[in-house]
Amino acid sequence: xxxxxxxxxxxxxxxxxxxxxxxxxxxxxxxxxxxxxxxxxxxxxxxxxxxxxxxxxxxxxxxxxxxxxxxxxxxxxxxxxxxxxxxxxxxxxxxxxxxxxxxxxxxxxxxxxxxxxxxxxxxxxxxxxxxxxxxxxxxxxxxxxxxxxxxxxxxxxxxxxxxxxxxxxxxxxxxxxxxxxxxxxxxxxxxxxxxxxxxxxxxxxxxxxxxxxxxxxxxxxxxxxxxxxxxxxxxxxxxxxxxxxxxxxxxxxxxxxxxxxxxxxxxxxxxxxxxxxxxxxxxxxxxxxxxxxxxxxxxxxxxxxxxxxxxxxxxxxxxxxxxxxxxxxxxxxxxxxxxxxxxxxxxxxxxxxxxxxxxxxxxxxxxxxxxxxxxxxxxxxxxxxxxxxxxxxxxxxxxxxxxxxxxxxx
Length: 410
What we know:
This protein is an all-alpha fold. Helix content is 80%, strand content 0%. The protein folds into 2 domains: 1-185, MFS general substrate transporter like domains (Growth Hormone, Chain: A, Up-down Bundle), CATH 1.20.1250; 200-410, Growth Hormone, Chain: A (Up-down Bundle), CATH 1.20.1250.20.
């Protein structure tokens, strides 16, 4: 918090307003996570159709992520942030108005645009506002909106669901989204600080160019590999617990993981500014892999508790540190495009995890799914340690916190 007090008054105000907007955005999103499937079932949607509607979220998210990245750089962070908060406020109205499958699929896909727009603009704006020497600390603090919102949203939604107040769930989501929009509208436009030699106008950069650049393609690949087990956790964990007949509430897993993620994000950022991003990304991947391994071999409540703690520590450290790393390696006037493409790696992994793992579930079982997920997370460790920097020597040194990031843009 001392770092925030050292910033200019306008910077502090923008960060505080942005934090409020982010917290309310994630509450608006998360309140529907445990309740929307039950609501769709209550209005007569068939089980197979519910999966189609829920999965349509990824269509809007994946289709628009590259587009909003360009818009963030060309038209400004605030405009795209307003688009994201407007969509999250409007979309829940569609669930209340429509009951047919095609229209609900359209509404759900439209809802997916909110995360694509908001997270890209939010991350880019936080980086713009953060002094480079305190970038990791401020990104860590500002990323707390996600675990806090994701913890509060389902709790509120679950309570209203138990009371049978489905319409109230959507209205709370609408109100939170609207206040998030109003908060975002109060942000002062900020100028992107660039070095004198980097003052060329904003230019489009292709996804192919980003992904074939080792400095940026490797983080995107790491997020893709991590996305698969992450998607498996949110899709198959409740069914997995049910089939092995362990008395453990799946909601408790997500709550423990959120608390663990919160703890990691609140302390890691400052240290990454001092010791570099590499050691914390490598450590987070190790924690994450260990957490998935706990699930693959789970046979007791404690196995799931340990898995939740390790998974939360891993994901809670990996995401803000990867955002900081990619920001370090990109030009300010292309940062929105770079962030959008790299984060799409995680989106893609999560989106296709359900159908891919679903096809093999009958053959390998739920433990087999998480065993495969453990292997993918472990391969992310290898990718980062071997190719995370310019040479093998630099990569290993960077991963151990003993060497600087050669790819950092000065």
